[in-house]
Amino acid sequence: MTATLRSWTGLSDNEAISAFLYTLYQPDNRDGNWFQPIWEYAYTHAWHDDAAMARNGVWEDGGRIVAAALYESCLGEAFFQVHPDYTHLKPAMLAYAEEQLAGTDKQGRRYLRAYVNQWDTPLLDLARARDYVRDADEDRPMSQLVIPDPFPPIRLPQGYRVQSLADDNDLRKVDRVLHRGFNHPGEPPEDGLAGRKKMQSGPHYRLDTTIVTVAPDGQFVSFAGLWYEPVNRFGYVEPVATDPDYRRMGLGTAAVMEGVRRCALEGATVAYVGSTKLFYQSMGFREVARQECWLKYL
After folding, report:
1. Domains along the chain with CATH numbers
2. Which end of the chain has fewer CB atoms < 10 Å from its terminal CB, N or C?
3. What digits encode the pLDDT tens for the residues 213-252?
């Protein structure tokens, strides 16, 4: 099994990498690879560094993708997606990431945060041998919810309702709830709508599983993006935000659970979220996997 390395070459590679990620999925994320929605959410995000995409590395064998070293939002981070028959490529993938995916901090130092699955002893040992240091604050956990059957009722305060963006895709309302929900001060800038359009531009993005909680005055006050992964039939939660003026009312929980419910109607039996926050634990999400962050200044 001889694999050859090439760089990301264009938009067609986004779908090719998606197709590759579909094949890697194992329940409980025990394969340790990205889910397809993580990749699509990354490259369609408003803050994604599109200019650096050609630095992503792809390994092929006989024209078939077998591994990829990818950054999520910007240079300085590396995530390794590997077919189980090609784990021998990981040392070369780490070396490639140091050369091509490193970032530069405000002091002008080149650095790399390499994300390594907590059970991947050979790659962890290699990172230590190459003078990486654990940065546990930047770990990436993955939690899973076994979707209850029957599904519990979704409760909301009087006057509030949940709906999807298929019912009302007012980008100004979307922009405002995400801006405020992620604790940015004041009202959102006028130029934010282009970024929101980009975040809805992915080929598998669905308005009908993207849920908002609506206040009595018609404003969106909670937002939950739910991605239904149709090949392996699960839900993935990203992003979630609630306007700080409306927190601790159950509105964010209602939005997430409505999205999960809709995924269940299409056949999902589990949903995942990249968090271990108490907010998600209260819904029944439990950690099943973790990517440790290892930092090196190059």
Report:
1. 4-140+291-297 (3.40.630.30), 161-268 (3.40.630.30)
2. N
3. 999 999 999 999 999 999 999 999 999 999 999 999 999 9
- Find the helix packing angle between 121-129 and 90-100, rounded to 10°: 40
CA nearest to 93, candidates 130, 118, 119: 130
Average pLDDT score over residue span 191-214:
97
pLDDT-based confidence at residue 1 (cuts at 50, 70, 90): confident
Residues in CB range of 6: below 8 A, 6 or more apart: 57, 58, 59, 60
